[in-house]
Write a structure and sequence with these properties.
homodimer, ten-stranded antiparallel beta sheet, globular, alpha+beta, five-stranded antiparallel beta sheet, Beta-galactosidase, Chain A, domain 5
């Protein structure tokens, strides 16, 4: 059993006790975000205990100089880092001249709640200060979903046992550093500050990348029943400026600070206008008032839940897990800006630096595609299109030519950030996921505009990459792919990874097919694209010829595709026979030992069976699953979800349920003992996949929405919603039946357990 | 044609002109060493131009914290670095109050000479200072081979065109840093200093490794015809102390400074006694006098040349090359201290940090074994024996047990320093070279004492490693070796590298055989070893069983052993069809492209054919050479020599000659454009191999010394000497005949071109 210090609740994450050793973990769990900015659940008041401070702004990064032991040709010069931004939440609370500090005070009745339904983070606690003053504190914080440059804090203080002199110093803090920094270079340069009683702002610019960021705040303060008090300004240091209120406060009376703050950046404004615009926004927001802002915000969350909630009856832990995952995904990415993407830790930590991995296309896209209007998923595709030139440059550095593109393993702005040769140069299947996402989006939404306007170019560049990357084996008389790393990163520099070869083949054929389709249906687009990309009939046919002659390693004995040429050379001891003390392997075994072992970090062949489900029979699926599952150690957070889907397809519901829970509660139960570093945001989309595509059995193939809902034994029912062609389809599965609620105008034809069914509008 | 700014000369390295852009290259070329300490050819006087300052002391290192991009389990915490030590050579020459500086003065008649016969480094030049003074300077420097803690400088200054006020400030410089530093941590901690007119000393301690080092000097100064002058002391800064002389000097008269200096370390002395001992040594040495020290030193060099010189008639460039190589090898390692070893750059640079690679056993041992008394090579073997416990610990970290040892890839003190998984964890053939060296030493010297006293333990630990590292393939019904890097580092994480499998098999069988031999011949040693190592009959038989069932990849089509399982899957385009602009590949191709190419960095299968020459027929050798040579790009300095030996065996003398020259003049002609970083010291032993084992055809197999001398077309003759069983055998090969000179008492039976011959004592 994993550790559970958080209370199980369907809608809320609740921490019920003061756990100093859990502060950093809770800072991750109680993170807030609104797609534009985010922050860890740090305290407003001073805290001298261990803490990991983090505030992040989407799209604002620093190109940190790469750190390597031994430089290899082709490594990128920089690794773009998510930036810890100046913090606007700080409130120094002084009682009779002494700052309160939960690390030194005695804490009573501590409680914090993340209300996922409303998108609010509340804390309530009492403390007895070292001087003996007992104080009640109550806070509410949110980052507005509606006005994404603004966040709000209500901070209320009530002395309980005596009258006090209360001072509140609300401040902006520019003295911040990244934990994830290669060389401890300063990431930020202070440009300017403005500090008046009614408005404070720090204007900073990132070094090298030169993003301008204005961190601002405005505050009001009142004692219950009284009128707002006048503040004065304070400057603690050059980079910490603030507003200061002081007031004598009688025992039992409550003083409340309303603080509004946030960021304006040069992503959306001129640098020169940042401070003035921020001031106007602050004034206007304060006029609107905390309660109105909160109301708007909750309304926005209600809309999200309305089209994306998943209900599970009979299993509150599973219910809480899926909602936490959906909540975090919505906090991380709203889809309104194609320059942003979904980092593996969202806005909850610094690890993994760059923002975009293949996670986006392979795991996140299905979630956003099925719970949002198409524009959201389309912006994820557009993000890559914007990086096409950089991907072509990247491939050129590796010796490719003629417009072949290799999209980066990790990126912010299209440039490769990652620098481990076995991943950066060899884990090239990511290119396939990007092409697949175009296919996946187009088939599900029915929207061909992306393909016509941008997608075709991306597909052509990717097809060119594969055509050059495959090489001819005179021994096999087939095209082979030497020296790759598949999704299972526990094998490096292998030959003929089945998944990579398969998706390469698929890319070549799909690109060929789409080019033909566009030629037929949109000849003018085709003509323009042919000219722009310089792609001829011959090249296109060559793709087909190569695709038709790709080699796939197989085992006749086992009746399976082999993960790679030499997989069967390994000592095939099932993972359940390993010494439990040596798990996870990546913390106990040296890298070479892992590499020559058969243990699979995350779905590899199974990833292909998941993505290309209709290409294989259920018997084939079962054979491969039975072969590979016993070697799969799931040491990637992205592994459970795929195995959950496949286990559900194979009616192995207990197994599917276990995998689902590992994914859904990975962070809440801290399975990997690393939640302190931040949440596994992209794997949360995997949880959604395991729920909707696993238990719901959702697929979309051959132009047909298909469902095969299956209920785990321990659940009463589940209900999920998907957006489909402009309306919401709700699917309810109980022990007895499947029920639908369809919000469209016209009847909807689907397949239910492979049988045609027409769902009428409700 | 490579750049040749150095004059071709049989015994000397001569730079004839002032080349400011060649200063750093020449600092490498003109390096001095005496096996205990060494230094680059830096100027004594101030120099404001580009320079790479370096003084090194054998066995004194700093464990620098490892630098990696992405940490992998098993990586070592530290990388031991060769240390740039405090410098004792500095002499600030002031003319009328201004320091001379070759970067700002006009330089005339500049000449420097490294006299390899005498082991001396001379510089002569004239300068005109910015103030118009013309000055003649003449210097001689050597590091005593006889008294290895002492070096000497004679520095003579003559004003030519006017009388001057001359000041000479001779100093010790503790303000030094390593260029090769991971984190710019300070490597040295100053402890104490002593500064009197007759003696100066800096006592420093290395951080972390805590080696105490006393850098000392003593000076005398006189004007020609006068008596020695009194110095005064100076302190330029805390870490730069010195002795100051001043004198009015008439035009045409010469002032000469004699400076003796060097290091005493806690490797050989108590830290508390270092300064006093140094003072005694300095006083005694100065009493002995510069000329006597030089005489002793030259005598020691004469002895070296007497037993190790190689003469080539008709090719001065080749002659200079081999002497330069022999000279540097003798400067680097004297074999008197088993704690020292041979770094890839000797005492000429910092690159490659740690001191010991497999270079020692695979390339250097034959040179020292055949040109020195057996104790020298024996100390190289003993070095590894001293590290056996650490090698067992190292293997344990990688998951091995029961006393299996993996010797480190790079080391100073037995701990692994290297941290690139594909090398550190996978280039395990190094273990084989260490076992082979024991075999090689024992068969050549006939001395079994090392085997009995230490070698057997090393062999057992290595055999255990291989027995555990090989794994059973149920497909092949053979033992396979998955996930290794062979000598060709342009392939990583490959399966069944033929060379590694072959040497593993050989190790298992040789260990088994030696255990049996010891049991028969030295039962008491055998009993003791069995008890100490806990090795039983069963384990020993198991080694034989495994050895007998090891898999070797072959190509029936080509009739060859394959470098690794999938070698033939590659696109086999010969290297001479590559674009010359893309050479060397490692500077132009990304790592993944190199890895999936067939290009071989250095002898791999051919390394095995070189080491186990008698196991294969000449037809087999030829077939393999013809297959692999066309893919060999020789981008390691250790590649030419092996191919030279094999080409000579195959009577391809032009090819052998080309390879020989590439190896012999690698640094003098700066083929790789990197001589500035230091010399390729260990590959110099490879040059000797290509000469003596290549052109000389020296082998020792089946208890017989065998020679097959062959003369390259462009040579008149060559003559080499080897130490064999206590005497020197000289072999002279001219176009007409082979002549021998044998210094032993008894006739010597050899094979000459495979025919028995008895060589009488001369």
């Amino acid at each position: 059993m994993q550790e559970q210090y958080l209370k199980i609740d369907p809608w809320k994450i609740i921490e019920q006790e003061w756990n100093p050793e859990k502060v950093i973990a809770s800072e991750s769990i109680f993170s807030l975000g609104n797609g534009t900015m985010g922050m860890r659940g740090n305290f407003e008041e001073n805290y001298s205990g261990n803490t990991f401070q983090g505030s992040y702004i989407g799209g604002i990064y620093y190109p940190d100089k790469t750190k390597v032991g031994w430089w290899k040709n082709g490594y990128p010069e920089f690794f773009a880092k998510v930036l810890n931004a100046p913090s606007w939440i700080g409130i120094d609370v002084r009682v009779d001249g002494e700052s309160i500090d939960l690390a030194t005070a005695t804490v009573h009745n501590f409680q914090r709640i993340l209300d996922m339904q409303k998108g609010c983070y509340n804390r309530n606690f009492e403390i007895t200060t070292p001087a003996g003053v007992r104080l009640q504190v109550s806070t509410t914080r949110f980052l507005s979903l509606k006005r994404t440059e603004v966040g709000a804090i209500k901070y209320a203080v009530t002395p309980i046992n005596q009258n006090i002199d209360l001072e509140l110093c609300s401040y902006l803090d520019g003295i911040i550093v990244n934990q994830d920094s290669n060389w401890d270079n300063p990431f930020w340069k202070p440009l300017k500050q403005q500090n008046s009683p009614s408005f404070s702002a720090l204007l900073n610019r990132t070094n090298k990348s030169a993003f301008g960021v204005c961190t601002f705040m405005t505050n009001t303060f009142e004692v219950a029943g009284g009128s707002p008090l006048e503040p004065s300004t304070t400057t603690a240091s050059d980079e910490r400026i603030g507003t200061h209120f002081s007031q004598s406060l009688a025992a039992g009376s409550t003083a409340t600070l309303i603080k509004l703050g946030g960021y304006l950046t040069t992503l959306n404004h001129d640098e020169n206008a940042l401070i003035d615009t921020a001031q106007a926004l602050a004034t206007q927001s304060m006029k609107r008032g905390f309660d109105t802002l909160l109301e708007e915000h909750q309304k926005a969350w209600a809309e999200i839940w309305n089209s994306a909630d998943i209900q599970i009856e009979g299993d509150v832990a599973a219910q809480q897990g899926i909602r936490f995952n959906i909540f975090q995904l919505n906090q991380t990415y709203s889809g309104s800006d194609a320059r942003l993407n979904i980092g593996p830790k969202g806005f909850t930590g610094e690890k993994y630096g760059g923002s975009t991995y293949w996670d986006t296309e392979a795991y996140c896209l299905p979630f956003y595609m099925a719970t949002k209007p198409p524009e959201v998923a389309r912006n994820l595709l557009k993000y890559r299109y914007q990086h096409l030139d950089k991907a072509i440059e990247n491939a050129e550095k590796l010796g490719f030519s003629n417009g072949a593109a290799l999209f980066p393993m990790v990126t912010m702005n299209g440039e490769e950030c990652h620098n481990e040769w076995e991943i950066t140069f060899q884990e090239i299947h990511r290119n396939g996921a990007i092409a697949f996402a175009i296919f996946n989006y187009t088939r599900y939404t029915g929207d061909h505009s992306f393909l016509l306007e941008m997608g075709l170019e991306v597909l052509i560049a990717i097809a060119r990459f594969w055509a050059q990357r495959l090489s001819w084996s005179t021994q096999k008389e087939k095209y082979v792919m030497l020296g790759v790393t598949g999704p299972n990163e526990y094998e490096n520099n292998i030959d003929n990874n089945w998944y990579t070869n398969y998706i390469a083949q698929w890319c070549l054929l799909y690109t060929q097919e789409q080019l033909e389709w566009v030629a037929r249906t949109h000849p003018e687009v085709h003509a323009e694209c042919i000219t722009k990309m310089g792609v001829g009939e011959e090249e296109c046919q060559q793709w087909g010829a190569i695709a038709g002659a790709i080699y796939f390693p197989i085992s006749e004995e086992h009746g399976i595709f082999l993960q790679q040429d030499n997989f069967l050379e390994k000592e095939l001891i099932p993972e359940n026979q390993l010494n439990p003390k040596e798990r996870p392997l990546n913390q106990h075994w040296s890298w070479d030992r892992i590499l020559r072992s058969p243990y699979i970090k995350q779905a590899d062949v199974m990833q292909g069976f998941y993505m290309f489900a209709s290409h294989f029979t259920e018997e084939e699926l079962e054979r491969h699953y039975d072969f590979y599952e016993p070697f799969t150690v799931h040491e990637s957070s992205l592994s459970y979800c795929i195995h959950a889907v496949i286990a559900a397809r194979l009616n192995r519901m207990d197994e599917a349920y276990d995998f689902y829970l590992r994914s859904a509660r990975l962070d809440l139960d801290d399975y990997n003992k690393e939640v302190e570093e931040g949440l596994h945001t992209t794997s949360m989309a995997g949880t959604w996949i395991s729920m909707v595509e696993g238990f719901g059995g959702l697929t979309f193939e051959n132009n047909s929405l298909s469902l095969r809902p299956k209920l785990p034994d321990c659940w009463e029912s589940f209900t999920f919603k998907i957006q489909f062609r402009g309306a919401v389809l709700q699917v309810h599965q109980s022990k007895e039946q499947t029920k639908f609620h369809w919000g469209g105008d016209q009847p909807l034809s689907i397949l239910l357990h492979d049988k045609p069914l027409t769902v009428s509008p409700s």
